Every structure is written in structure tokens, then in C-alpha cells.
């Protein structure tokens, strides 16, 4: 392709603005040219508001519109779709059919039938595509990916995150006008977010897939919040316990909570292989592995088995995923993309499968059946 990639973006909320910041930088570098921005609300399209998030943003030559068809008329090469996952209305299919390369934020939909339709349209059109799993570009996660590929057999990942219910970010969709929470924090609401394993846990699940391969089955149990404890639409469960089984035999355990009045969070992330363990934190990745003669004459000192595999927070993965997406389009190199839509379907099915398993009393749900079997049709369908 000659010249910068012509990019459009729909959904100028929390995530769309983060992507716009990256795209604005990529525009300064000559890699992309912004041509259209769409949002459902005029207020989110005001240049002054956008500048509060994207320093120095100028709207010259960029159409700001509430009309999706008008965005398509600008004939962009690519479209970023950054809208809440329950409000899709055929835009991804329409854009794929119009030949646009697609960046679709996670979770691509709360409904598997709708996501399967998107997947079919994207594959059919042969456009380049990615789901918004930027964490595969975090240096810490790349280091683990490489470490496991050096002949280590993964056994298990364990992720715990206890976040305060009130810690959710404020959102930009005016949910109060569309039957959602008055405070706009739709991530705490079941109908809008698909619950926390789908909304947030999907990032971890997708990372585990980056390291371990596809998920085969899932079992889950949640502790649901009773109506009497629901404030301002925040009706997501108190706690989530989910166990994911990978095709190669590894497992992933995810323990999440969103409690009110705690106002403190706690996280822990471990990855285990047959003869070692990695701990992932904000400060980097530490591995615990013994490399000396085996068996040692006496237990080795801790220093001998502790290695810093990666130091620091892993870089700006949101910028990295866009840089690579633009490069893949410009150079016609789909192999640069780490989360093509079709690949991401397994991540989406796994987390939706966790919700289904919880609903079925903790039954083991096989993803192949969840995606295809008639017995799961009702769980795939979008409510009308
Ligand atoms: N990858 C990540 O780390 C990450 C982080 C945050 C959010 N997300 C995902 O990004 C998506 C958007 O979330 P958000 O946090 O930006 O929400 P948000 O509510 O802050 O923003 C959504 C925006 O989409 C707009 N919108 C809704 N329907 C639209 C339509 N039909 N046409 C045009 N605009 C429309 C809203 O007006 C709003 O401005 C969600 O799927 C969310 O899960 C991903």
C-alpha cells in the first residue's frame, strides 16, 4: 500500500480515546491518516473533549459523525470498533463487506451467534483483522511466551484479582439513556458487560492461550449478588471461580472478586511448567528454576533458583498493537497480527462458556459444543 493507512474509529469512549492517542502518534510518524470518527453522542465528538485525552489532537480533515454510513463514505482502509459489547448492530459485518480492515475491541460481542456472524463476514471478505488483545504485546508476557517455547511444558496458570466494585472506570456511553446504569459504569452491570470473567477475565484467558494454546473446556461457579445488594445497576456477582482446560492438558484457574466497600485491590499471577514457575508483577517477571546438577547435594539457596526474566512493566502495549496492525495493513503481512478475529473466538467462547457453566451448576462445558451444538443454541443467541 502506498501512503499512510486511512483509519476510522467508532466509539470515542475510554478505549476509543486510548486508541486515538496511539493513532494520533502514528499519524505524526506518517504511518496512518485519520479520516473519520464516529460516536453515538455528539458530546463525545467535540474536539475540545477529545483533546482532554489526546494532547494536541486536530480535527482537520477528520469527519466527526454520529452516522456510521457517513463514516464508510470516507472510504477508510481500516476501522477500529470500540463500542460496548452489547450494542453492536451489524457494523462489523457491514464494514467487512465494504472491504475495511478491522480492529474489534474485546469482547467482540456478548453473544456467540453475533460473533460467529462477524467472523464469517471477516473471513469471507478476506480483510486483515484483529481483536483488541494488546496484552500479547506486553514485554513481560512476550518473555513468558519465549521462555515456554524453549522446551518447557506448561502445566497451569493461576490468576487472582480482588478489585473493588467501585474501582471500575467511568465510561462515556450515556447508558442512562439506554436503560443502563445512571453512573455510566456499565462494566459493573451484567447485561452490558457479560459479567467480570467476560469483561476483564478475557484478557488473562487470552494470555494463557498465547502461552498454552486453545481452551477445550471450562467449569465455573459464581456467587451472585442478590437484588437487595444492587446499587446503581451494579449487579455483577461478588466472586468468580473458573477452571479452564487447555487442549494440551494445561489448566488455568481464575479467581476474581468485585466487592463493595473494600477500596483496595490485590492481584497475583503465576505460571507453572513441569520444572519451574514464573511470577508476574508490575515490577516484572521472576522465574524460580534450578539449573545445576540434579539432584543437588543440598537444597540450593533461593538466590540460585531466582532469576529476573523481565524487568519493568512491559511497555505501551496499546500503542504496540496499533503500530503492528497498521504495519500489517501497509505491508500486507497478516502474520504480524497476534490475535486475528478467528483465533480470538476461542478466548471469547471460553469466557462465555464460564458463564454458561455457572448457569448449569458448574457443569463442564466443551467449547466445540458451546459454539455448534443445538443444545447450547439458547446460550449463543442475542436477546431480541
Ligand atoms: N483492550 C482493553 O484493554 C480495553 C479497555 C477498556 C475497554 N475495552 C473494550 O472497549 C469497548 C468499549 O469500551 P469503553 O471502555 O470505551 O466504553 P465507553 O462507554 O467508555 O465508550 C464506548 C463509546 O462507544 C460509543 N458508542 C456506543 N454505541 C455506538 C455506536 N453504535 N456508534 C458509535 N459509537 C457508539 C459510546 O457513545 C461511547 O463513547 C468494550 O468492548 C470494552 O470491553 C477494552
Short descriptors:
Rossmann fold; 24% strand; 384 residues; Dihydrodipicolinate Reductase, domain 2; 34% helix; 15 strands; alpha/beta; 13 helices; binds nicotinamide-adenine-dinucleotide
Overview of this protein structure:
By secondary structure, the protein is an alpha/beta fold. It folds into two domains: 5-135 and 318-338, NAD(P)-binding Rossmann-like Domain (Rossmann fold, 3-Layer(aba) Sandwich), CATH 3.40.50.720; 136-314 and 346-380, Dihydrodipicolinate Reductase, domain 2, CATH 3.30.360. The protein has 13 helices and 15 strands. It has a nine-stranded mixed sheet. Strands 3-2-1-4-5-6 form a six-stranded parallel sheet, sandwiched between helices. Helix 1 crosses helix 10 (317-331), helix 4 (91-97) packs parallel to helix 5 and helix 5 (112-125) runs antiparallel to helix 11 (341-359). The longest helix is centred in the last third of the chain and has 19 residues, at 341-359. Bound molecules: nicotinamide-adenine-dinucleotide. Residues 10-16, 38-41, 44, 82-85, 87, 105-106, 132, 134, 171-173, 199 line the site of nicotinamide-adenine-dinucleotide (NAD). Residues 10-16, 38-41, 44, 82-85, 87, 105-106, 132, 134, 171-173, 199 line the site of nicotinamide-adenine-dinucleotide.
Amino acid at each position: 500500500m502506498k501512503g499512510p493507512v486511512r483509519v476510522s474509529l467508532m466509539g470515542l469512549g475510554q478505549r476509543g480515546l486510548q486508541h486515538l492517542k496511539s493513532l494520533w502518534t502514528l499519524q505524526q510518524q506518517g504511518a496512518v491518516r485519520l479520516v473519520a470518527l464516529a460516536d453515538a453522542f455528539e458530546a463525545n465528538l467535540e474536539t475540545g473533549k477529545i483533546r482532554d485525552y489526546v494532547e494536541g489532537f486536530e480535527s482537520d480533515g477528520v469527519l466527526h459523525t454520529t452516522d456510521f454510513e457517513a463514516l464508510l463514505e470516507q472510504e477508510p482502509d481500516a476501522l477500529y470498533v470500540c463500542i460496548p459489547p452489547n450494542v453492536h448492530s451489524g457494523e462489523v459485518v457491514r464494514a467487512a463487506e465494504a472491504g475495511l480492515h478491522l480492529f474489534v475491541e474485546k469482547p467482540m460481542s456478548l453473544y456467540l451467534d453475533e460473533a460467529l456472524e462477524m467472523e464469517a463476514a471477516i473471513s469471507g471478505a478476506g480483510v486483515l483483522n484483529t481483536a483488541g488483545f494488546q496484552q500479547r504485546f506486553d514485554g513481560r508476557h512476550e518473555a513468558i511466551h519465549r521462555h515456554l517455547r524453549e522446551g518447557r511444558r506448561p502445566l497451569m496458570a493461576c490468576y487472582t484479582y480482588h478489585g473493588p466494585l467501585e474501582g471500575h472506570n467511568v465510561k462515556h456511553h450515556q447508558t442512562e439513556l439506554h436503560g443502563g446504569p445512571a453512573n455510566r459504569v456499565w462494566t459493573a452491570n451484567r447485561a452490558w458487560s457479560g459479567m467480570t470473567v467476560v469483561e476483564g477475565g478475557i484478557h488473562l484467558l487470552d494470555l494463557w492461550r498465547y502461552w498454552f494454546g486453545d481452551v477445550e473446556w471450562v467449569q465455573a461457579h459464581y456467587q451472585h449478588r442478590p437484588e437487595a445488594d444492587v446499587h446503581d445497576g451494579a449487579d455483577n456477582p461478588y466472586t468468580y471461580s473458573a477452571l479452564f482446560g487447555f487442549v494440551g492438558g494445561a489448566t488455568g484457574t481464575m479467581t476474581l472478586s468485585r466487592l463493595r466497600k473494600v477500596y483496595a485491590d490485590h492481584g497475583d499471577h503465576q505460571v507453572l511448567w513441569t520444572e519451574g514457575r514464573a511470577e508476574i508483577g508490575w515490577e516484572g517477571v521472576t522465574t524460580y528454576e534450578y539449573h545445576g546438577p540434579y539432584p543437588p547435594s543440598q537444597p540450593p539457596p533461593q538466590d540460585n533458583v531466582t532469576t529476573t526474566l523481565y524487568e519493568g512493566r512491559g511497555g505501551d502495549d496499546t500503542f504496540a498493537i496499533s503500530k503492528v496492525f497498521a504495519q500489517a495493513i501497509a505491508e500486507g503481512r497478516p502474520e504480524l497480527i497476534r490475535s486475528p478475529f478467528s483465533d480470538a473466538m476461542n478466548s471469547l467462547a471460553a469466557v462465555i462458556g464460564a458463564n454458561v457453566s455457572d448457569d448449569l451448576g458448574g457443569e463442564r462445558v466443551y467449547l466445540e459444543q458451546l459454539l455448534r451444538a443445538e443444545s447450547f443454541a439458547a446460550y449463543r443467541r442475542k436477546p431480541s
